Amino acid sequence: MIQSYNLKVDIPQKNAYSYDILIGCNLLDSVDELVNKYSFANKFLIVTNEKVAGLYKDKIAIDKANWLVLPDGEEYKNFETLKLILDAAVKNKLERKDCIVAFGGGVVGDMAGFAAATYMRGCDFIQIPTTLLAQVDSSVGGKVAVNHEDGKNLIGAFYQPKAVIADINVLKTLDLRQLKTGLSEILKYALIEKSCAAPLNYRLYDFLIQHKQDIFDLNPEVMSKLVHICCALKASVVNQDETEKGLRAILNLGHTYAHAIESLTNYTTYTHGEAVGVGLKMALNLALIRGLIDKGYFEQAINLIDEYQIAPKIPKLDKEEFYNVMFLDKKAKNGKIRFVVPNGMYSVAIVSDISKEQVMESISTCL
Ligand code: NAD
Ligand code: GLY
Questions:
Q1: Which domains does the chain have, with CATH numbers?
Q2: 69 forms bridges with which residues in the sheet?
């Protein structure tokens, strides 16, 4: 019998709003019971996409549910698709206590969550994440959004779900590239885990060293524990800073670099995870240049990233252009980029006094 995990997100600033994250195998078998435990809805609207519906529609049996199947892809994470979800909610006469269920990866989760945040000023919302990235990151913490033509996730809200139900079995149908996208975020957690201050008995960093093969083999025991550790780290950060006034920004380690890489390659060459993998290396370079970490930890961390093969070799991008694009990132404040930088083993700091030369040098070593 494979162990299941039940964690809580507990947000004290929000009248102690709290919800469960369930992690385990075969949770979809009892999905009707679970969604009815977490929502008193009379009706459910299950939002998914063509790919996930093709693979798993038969496995989801929820009474009183209607389905909305969206086209698959980040390019559909926009107002038009959001309207399709809201139209379906209106057409199905959902009331405020009714529930939108996001069944898919981060794209479906972010859009369905944003629809739930705005429909009747907020109806119930449950996340059933189906990618590794969604299970360890996007389904937890309440960031919901759609893209605008001028920027990713520009229009959104903080809207927490009633529950997150992560069934490890669905990871089996992910391709290697999608798996690695999730792994990049997981390696990010390993580099920030001390700063998350989660009450955990494991060190994720060591877990990743010990269980690499099991992770690539999707060993259900190991994957359940891995998703549990990551969700515990994220929940701890969200509990301390739901709306990113400070600490939550540490979850963006490597992402300022990654967004520049994605933007300069027109979002077509690298997956987000691949860009984050390279971004993590650049952030480690920056930490070394600033003397915030020693060479030993630097080399160990770079080796771990290389062992997981999450950071592809990228072509020579124009450094000046790279630097300028980083300024357009929404993490730039008052003309200064706020960098999340490793400042010790498994810990990070947020700094804004990095010189242009230091940024350029941190980029160069990866180009
Ligand atoms: P995605 O949702 O596009 O899913 C990736 C691909 O996997 C899609 O083709 C999808 O159809 C397919 N898929 C989903 N589940 C599957 C399964 N079980 N088997 C086989 N294929 C499956 O991408 P993603 O990586 O899950 O999420 C990326 C999105 O998440 C981005 O839009 C990003 O902005 C957002 N995000 C949000 C947060 C947050 O905190 N809200 C955090 C990180 C990322
Ligand atoms: N993925 C970043 C965050 O949730 O804040």
A1: 5-174 (3.40.50.1970), 181-367 (1.20.1090.10)
A2: 48
CB 244 near ligand 1, within 6 Å: no
pLDDT score of 266: 85
Residues 228-244: tens digit of each pLDDT: 999 999 999 999 999 99
Look at residue 1 in the predicted model and tell me its pLDDT: 81
What are the DSSP calls for 277-288, one per residue?
A: HHHHHHHHHHHH
Q: Ligand 2 centre from 138 Cα, in Å?
A: 7
Ligand 2 centroid distance, CA of 253 (Å): 10
134 touches ligand 1 (CB under 6 Å):
yes
Hey, what amino acid is at 263?
S
Residues at CB less than 6 angstroms from ligand 2 = 137, 141, 143, 248, 251
Q: Residue 295 phi/psi, 5° resolution? A: -60, -35
Atom of ligand 1 nearest to the CA of 131: 15
**Contact (Cβ atoms closer than 8 angstroms) between residue 127 and residue 219:** no
Mutate to test the pocket of ligand 1, among 46, 47, 51, 189 (most ligand atoms within 8 A of CB): 51
CA of 141 to the centre of ligand 2 (A): 7
Tokens 């920030």 belong to residue:
192
Closest ligand 2 atom to Cα of 143: 4
Over the stretch 148-186, which tens digit does the pLDDT of each residue have? 988 889 999 999 999 999 999 999 999 999 999 999 999
Whether the full predicted model's pTM is greater than 0.90, yes or no, is yes
Q: In sequence order, what are the residues at sequence separation of 6 or more whose Cβ sits closer than 8 angstroms to the Cβ of residue 122? A: 96, 116, 159
Cα–Cα distance for residue pair 310/211, rounded to 1 Å:
16
